[in-house]
User: Fold AbiEi antitoxin C-terminal domain-containing protein from Streptomyces griseoflavus Tu4000.
Amino acid sequence: MLRDRTDSRAALWRTAAGQRGYFTAAQALEAGYSYQAQRYHAQHGNWLVIDRALYRFREFSDLPGEGDEQLVRWSLWSRGRAAVSHATALAVHDLGTANPSRIHLTVPRGFRQKSDAVILHRAELVDSDVEDRAGYRVTVPSRAIAECAADGDDQDVIDGAVAEALEQGVVTRRKLLYAAQSLGARAELGVERALGALS
Assistant:
């Protein structure tokens, strides 16, 4: 069934609006844009080409950003299989002083894509490990802290994140210890040290 151009744009716009203006070639195809039409819009500057088969409506690039637009982009790059994690998740939750130079993503073990712009961690996350944001998923604060401890991140970063998370009431000591135990001895040690520093 052929769609009217305005219907196609409206359908794609609705999808992109929930993803900060980003959309994939597959989503454009589903909205009614053939690959030839997609090429036309990209070549004429109607759509910004972000990556292979990844676009953004030009109008969204003119809006003031909330700082996490890149995370939506990487979620789409992973076809929704990645969750923002580790130090990047701490930054999303505004806990501590984590300021990673590259984006940390946790992906399933069989994930094959690669990029120098991201650091990939492989793990099978359960629903309680993640929360949904506008256009991407992120590990919950207790998991993010435990991930950083398991990776041997700077203890000062972990101490600050634990202190702020407890102060804000977004985690409990029990949840932190449970998350750390699930990631191993190194995570437990880092979290226990951070909790000990509060005494």
Residues 155-168 form the longest helix (14 residues). Strands lie at 22-24, 47-51, 54-57, 83-84, 103-107, 118-122, 130-133, 136-139.
